[in-house]
Amino acid sequence: MIKKLLNKNKEYANLSMVNNFQNNSLDEKFWMNCPECKKNIFKKDVEENLYICPKCDYHLKLPARQRIDLLIDTGTFTEFDKNLYSKNILNFPEYENKLNLYKDKTNENDAVITGTGKINGLNATICVMNTDFMMGSMGAVVGEKITRAATYSIENKIPFIIISSSGGARMQEGIISLMQMAKTAQELRRLSEYKIPYISILTDPTTGGVTASFAMLGDIIIAEPKALIGFAGPRVIEQTIKQTLPDGFQRAEFLLEKGFVDIIVNRKDMKNMLFRIIKMHGYQEA
Amino acid sequence: MIKKLLNKNKEYANLSMVNNFQNNSLDEKFWMNCPECKKNIFKKDVEENLYICPKCDYHLKLPARQRIDLLIDTGTFTEFDKNLYSKNILNFPEYENKLNLYKDKTNENDAVITGTGKINGLNATICVMNTDFMMGSMGAVVGEKITRAATYSIENKIPFIIISSSGGARMQEGIISLMQMAKTAQELRRLSEYKIPYISILTDPTTGGVTASFAMLGDIIIAEPKALIGFAGPRVIEQTIKQTLPDGFQRAEFLLEKGFVDIIVNRKDMKNMLFRIIKMHGYQEA
Amino acid sequence: MMQIDKPILELESKIQELKKLSQDNNIDLSTEIDILTRKLENMKTQIYENLTPWQKVNLTRSNDRPTSKDYILNICSDFIELHGDRCFRDDLSIIGGIGLIDDICVTIIGHQKGKTVKENIARNFGMPHPEGYRKALRLMKQADKFNRPIITFIDTPGAYCGIGAEERGQGEAIARNLLEMSSLGVPIISIVIGEGGSGGALALGVCNKLAMLEHSIYSVISPEGLSSILWKDVSKASQAASIMKLTSNDLYELEVVDKIIKEPLGGAQKDVKSTSESIKKYIIEQIRSYQNLTREEIIDDRYKKFRKIGY
Amino acid sequence: MMQIDKPILELESKIQELKKLSQDNNIDLSTEIDILTRKLENMKTQIYENLTPWQKVNLTRSNDRPTSKDYILNICSDFIELHGDRCFRDDLSIIGGIGLIDDICVTIIGHQKGKTVKENIARNFGMPHPEGYRKALRLMKQADKFNRPIITFIDTPGAYCGIGAEERGQGEAIARNLLEMSSLGVPIISIVIGEGGSGGALALGVCNKLAMLEHSIYSVISPEGLSSILWKDVSKASQAASIMKLTSNDLYELEVVDKIIKEPLGGAQKDVKSTSESIKKYIIEQIRSYQNLTREEIIDDRYKKFRKIGY
Ligand SMILES: [Zn+2]
Ligand SMILES: [Zn+2]
């Protein structure tokens, strides 16, 4: 009802909603503010729209499990290594507590979900990073799960897909976390030697050690519109160079122009694009 | 005597020489003007100094046969394909006449000398381009001779060296001349597959189709100081962009900075540098 | 183009006039119309089968000449454009991607000109910078990895001449492509669809089979360039064109080109679909002919093609 | 460094004073001098064998810490520096070339810091841009072609953070090196000689054997970075250093590092020659140990090294 109203009398409705929102502190459970167009949007509308802002098409964070639902045919997903847990190898202060906190909050054991399933009938291995779990940071578990998933693709000769979103390496695992960059990259080298296509999908935000390893190594690299993708985060760069960054810096469109992204694909078209790419690599329904 | 005088009382001597030169039109047989420092230099001094300006170290054109004398141990050079002659495949107007003119003038049959010899005792195949012959342009004979020389290196497993200097493709041979770029490049690909080191030496000027084929394909690329090296010639670029080019543009030092040249080597040190490189590739005196 | 078409257009409008006259005044002019129509057909054949080299140069440069993209979209049942050199920039003067021709997966790369001024500025009039060639090479190596035949469309005035192009190694980029293309174990089929300008064209043209559209050209230097070198006078370009052997017939006689693909009367732009069909037919034939060759045989076939040119 | 050295320098000057006093006034202070000299030796050992992680961080960052070039010139009987990425620029924050160690031809690549402000500006304080990594990769592939072992020296605060670095794909360049290094059929020996800063260090560190100079460090983030994330306070870097396990001992215990190369008392800068000798000895030993392995075995050895880290 409210949605329809908004759509029909857009300007008017918007204004009154904003007023409502500010004056009466309307329940934040139902409303949110789009970080791109800054308009108030009805959460349910956003959720029903694959977390794309209905007003400006901005791609908000899509929860990892829903990403799998979006891309993988219903009922075909088999998860790998669900019970791999991070250990506090360095005895880093507070790390166990933090892990437990995130486990409770997300109901996941770490920052990536891996598994296999079908995309319009075509087999694929898929890894979805989860920024809800410690910013999608990569520690030993993320590195190991992605490596094992790539191995699965090699052994079963099926295309490999990673949907990245990450704050980078997980500092609580120190050098071990850094080494996951090499570990995953070298498994991708094996994948490449076996001529198995690897499609890397970059979503907001993809930064640090993930950008500097598997995210940038796709045979084909796809990004969601406006996703922030970079090695250094924009705040770190601004502190280093003591300047504000230009508009659009490190966004998907910028990376496309700079030659690092093949295609920018709307979330709604993503499954079909994956299907077309896999098909063009000669794979057929099994 | 004059040389000593010049060296001892530099400023004074110079001035008087310039005066002499201008007033009395001193014989141009004996004197020349350095294109870099603009000073008058005694031709004999230049020739005795490997055609390097004794005042500013500028590298003037070293005649091709003298280049071989400089780099190859005396008495060890065996020339290849001396009697390959260009044909007028396209019936291009005046081409035969032009060829004959250059043959008479240079006493060479085309714009490259190829052969094999020793560098401080180490075997090498060497190709020296000759700008005295039709600006060192590449037609079928240049392409063929370089290709055959590379084949010789493959068959005899000895390092391959090209000293480039060229105005580019030879327009009188049209498409045939263009195709020499592919022909030479693919022979270098074979050379590379056989893991035979190819050292490319760029001298003033190296441009056009030569730059865009074998000159830029060395495992190691050496340039003489200040040599002009580019795809398009500076005048063509200036005409296209309607601006004057910055100082030093397309010079060896510029290419080093831009990442396209490995080392800039003074002509006097060139033979020793080749020797060191070949030695470091595991070759020994035979 | 204007000049070439002019008598044809005049005659066409005359026929239209007669038709209108006949209809408006209800008089029978069918004999006259028939004669003129036959004359028009003859004239077209006459003109287009006897284009001078310079007319062909202008034909390939005209704004309505079909571009790589036109052929790609007509030939492929599906096409995904891929972007970028993974190093500096995505150069829009080269288009590339993966596509399906019938059921064959291929990689297609071509110089890309624009049709409007705006488009041409974005596409830099089909004159690549080094990053364009590096994008092409990346896509070709990818094709090699996945064992996809490579189709290249050649249509460029030449590699771009400018400061940035030199700074980023125009010569190196072209040279690298020549060498690397010669090492790919998949068949490469190149088709000159318009202007094949010098090293900038050859950088996509180290192929197993080279075809040219009937009216396309391919040369080591532009007619303007040659004319300015020979006679210090750019305006004699048409004269230069006539001596430099740049038409598909010339190159076929020189054994540089393997096949001339006929264009519809009046040029490819008169019927993009049928021209695309001819191209598609040629591509499929050629791919089929390489189907049973090993990687080494394919590399060797390409090697021999260029090895024998010139001597 | 100042802080670490301070008590040592004070004691040294006291001994000098006593010596002068003894000489000038002709009094015998030899017992006192002996005692103090022994005390000095003990103090040195005490201090340098018990450096805190933060002291090590500072030691590796001090201007007199030997750089890649210092070791290269001491280790090689001949070395030719090679330049450029063949694409955009020669990045001076990475040095690379071919050299002879005894009679073994090797390719050596290292991060290169400067010793003066001017040098450091030219070298960008040892923080590479993407073109630095691309130069390194070019030289490594060349080494692979000619079957030369690869030595890398790691000494960087990290890959550079800046607009140009992001524009030209810092992430891609590092990632590419990780993948490509894992495919090289020659042994890669890496030695952390100073600061091993994050991905910018690892981009030269996908090796068969990893050694660290005794006082060098290697970490996923700088102590300052960690401190500012954990406590929003850069000044607690020393505290951060103490929890992040970045010393050679820590990494040896974590089985990331294969070997700790001892430094002379007081650190490598006190005796570059002897440190170079130790490094050279290690390199030669390691190269010998790979001499009889096939390319595939060498690749597999490297693969296993990283495959087992973490899980
Ligand atoms: Zn919005
Ligand atoms: Zn001079």
From TrEMBL, chains A, B:
One of its GO terms (molecular function) is ATP binding. Zn(2+) binds at C34, C37, C53, C56. Its main location: cytoplasm. One of its GO terms (biological process) is fatty acid biosynthetic process. Its EC number is 2.1.3.15. Pathway: Lipid metabolism; malonyl-CoA biosynthesis; malonyl-CoA from acetyl-CoA: step 1/1. This is Acetyl-coenzyme A carboxylase carboxyl transferase subunit beta. It comes from Alkalithermobacter thermoalcaliphilus JW-YL-7 = DSM 7308.
From TrEMBL, chains C, D:
Its EC number is 2.1.3.15. It is found in: Cytoplasm. PROSITE patterns: COA_CT_CTER. Keywords: ATP-binding, Cytoplasm, Fatty acid biosynthesis, Fatty acid metabolism, Ligase, Lipid biosynthesis, Lipid metabolism, Nucleotide-binding, Transferase. Signal peptide: none annotated. InterPro entries: Acetyl_CoA_COase_a_su, ClpP/crotonase-like_dom_sf, COA_CT_C. The keyword Transmembrane helix does not apply. Gene3D superfamilies: 2-enoyl-CoA Hydratase, Chain A, domain 1. GO terms for biological process: fatty acid biosynthetic process; malonyl-CoA biosynthetic process. GO terms for cellular component: acetyl-CoA carboxylase complex. Pathway: Lipid metabolism; malonyl-CoA biosynthesis; malonyl-CoA from acetyl-CoA: step 1/1. It catalyses: N(6)-carboxybiotinyl-L-lysyl-[protein] + acetyl-CoA = N(6)-biotinyl-L-lysyl-[protein] + malonyl-CoA. One of its GO terms (molecular function) is carboxyl- or carbamoyltransferase activity. Residues 35-289 form the CoA carboxyltransferase C-terminal domain. Transmembrane segments: none annotated. Acetyl-CoA carboxylase is a heterohexamer composed of biotin carboxyl carrier protein (AccB), biotin carboxylase (AccC) and two subunits each of ACCase subunit alpha (AccA) and ACCase subunit beta (AccD). Belongs to the AccA family. Component of the acetyl coenzyme A carboxylase (ACC) complex. First, biotin carboxylase catalyzes the carboxylation of biotin on its carrier protein (BCCP) and then the CO(2) group is transferred by the carboxyltransferase to acetyl-CoA to form malonyl-CoA. This is Acetyl-coenzyme A carboxylase carboxyl transferase subunit alpha. The gene is accA.
